[in-house]
Specification:
single chain, Leucine-rich Repeat Variant, 12 helices
């Protein structure tokens, strides 16, 4: 890949940053370039112990959309949990169906509530038009089953994210998958009556009003 001189300078600025603030500024500038050539460096930043820079790198990867997905999938490292968690957040924000398996597993089994939350929201943002209709039909049912499971999570922030995911999912097939819509509405009604957290019940009520 040919790297433009301007992007190369931004990459070098990230590599030479000698302070947390300097790194953050350099990553933000590199992310703003929206250049595919920046992807390996942005992913490398996810491994650093710098949450601010990681957030900026995730935002840059999300802006690059599906072109970043193969790189993220290749770089997810089970032995570097921090980098893996940030990568999952980026994949959740992009919504490419190529990341479905990872998001499904993360939403239901990851030990970090922030990762489960991000994955649950991401499952509602899947761009189904990137799949053929039959694959999308089957995957939508799997996503719904996972979100229904996540609605039982012990952490209220994860249940909140699951409700957001359910609402987003419902909006993608409101006029075509009445079987799934019925399950979503039933789950929301049950949580509205039974969830112990007021903020979750308020979010459910908002979702029901929209649906």
């Amino acid at each position: 890949m040919i790297v433009a001189d301007s992007t190369q300078k931004l990459i070098e600025a990230v590599e030479k940053a000698d302070s947390a603030e300097g790194l953050l500024d350099a990553v933000e500038a590199l992310s703003a370039a929206r250049d595919e050539a920046a992807i390996p460096t942005l992913i490398e930043v996810l491994r650093f112990n710098n949450p601010g820079a990681a957030v900026a790198a995730v935002e840059g990867l999300i802006d690059l959309q599906e072109v970043a997905v193969p790189h993220l999938l290749q770089q997810i490292d089970d032995y570097n949990y921090g980098a893996r968690a940030w990568a999952i957040r980026a994949l959740a924000g992009i919504g490419d169906p190529a990341a479905l398996d990872i998001l499904l597993k993360a939403a239901s089994t990851d030990f970090s509530l922030s990762v489960r939350r991000a994955a649950a929201r991401g499952l509602g943002n899947i761009r189904w038009l990137l799949l053929d209709s039959q694959k999308a039909f089957l995957a939508q049912s799997e996503v719904l089953d996972t979100l229904l499971l996540v609605c039982q999570d012990g952490e209220w922030v994860v249940r909140y994210a699951a409700v957001v995911g359910l609402e987003s999912l419902a909006n993608t097939f409101a006029d075509s998958r009445f079987d799934l819509m019925d399950k979503i509405l039933q789950q929301c009604q049950e949580m509205l009556q039974g969830d112990p957290e007021l903020v979750v019940r308020a979010r459910i009520k908002m979702a029901l009003e929209q649906l």
